[in-house]
Design brief:
The chain is 76% helix and 0% strand. It has helices at residues 2-18, 21-59, 64-79, 90-114, 118-122, 124-159, 163-170, 180-186.
């Protein structure tokens, strides 16, 4: 009887090893880890924005519409709860992606406006914030790319035979990913110009 039980346990272990169950667990953990890094970098960007807006306001207070656009876009991003369930819901993920895209666009407009203010461009605090923003945007791109690859691997496992049978049994579904169309906009860092402003004649 004991021998039969051991054989049954071994057979079950071999079945799970070959059906992709462990692969699902590994890939799911990788997705969670990579998603945490995406959120970490987006938060880093959001934390830079108040100082950036205040610095621009000091030199270009009349650009109210642009400044308000950045502030509102940041507030919209902050209102979305980035719960673990978000990466399993295409609708919630889409809203998150759209909000981050809106913030990227608002930041780009702010940096374009700054080109019209030589004193702002030459301000040490503003230049430091630009450098931090550029570095953060690059980190966001790297983190997003890692997440995209992890989700791609997971989704391939969900759709491939025989692991797709395991997916059906345990209810594993494909996870939403950053869209290709949005990828071009959101992952493109805002243009940051570090050249000093030309001296006035």
């Amino acid at each position: 009887m004991r021998k039969s039980y051991v054989v049954l346990v071994l057979l079950l272990a071999l079945t799970f090893a070959g059906c992709g169950y462990n692969t699902f667990q590994r890939n799911d953990e990788l997705i969670k880890s990579n998603w945490s890094e995406v959120l970490n970098q987006y938060q880093r960007r959001a934390d830079l924005i108040p100082n950036l807006v205040n610095t621009v306001k000091g030199f270009a207070a009349q650009e109210k519409e642009v400044l308000l656009g950045v502030t509102n876009a940041r507030a919209k991003v902050g209102s979305i709860q980035a719960t673990p369930e978000l990466i399993n819901s295409p609708e919630a993920f889409g809203k998150f992606q759209a909000a981050q895209g809106e913030l990227s666009g608002a930041l780009s407009r702010l940096l374009v406006v700054s080109e019209n203010y030589p004193q702002l461009k030459s301000d040490a605090n503003f230049r430091d914030l630009q450098a931090q923003l550029e570095g953060t945007e690059n980190r966001i791109t790297v983190a997003r790319n890692r997440y995209i690859k992890a989700v791609q691997e997971y989704n391939i496992t969900v759709r491939s035979f025989p692991s797709n049978l395991t997916a059906m049994i345990f209810g594993y579904k494909t996870k939403p990913n950053f869209s290709v169309e949005n990828e071009k906009e959101v992952s493109k860092p805002p243009k940051v110009d570090f050249a000093p402003a030309p001296a006035k004649q």
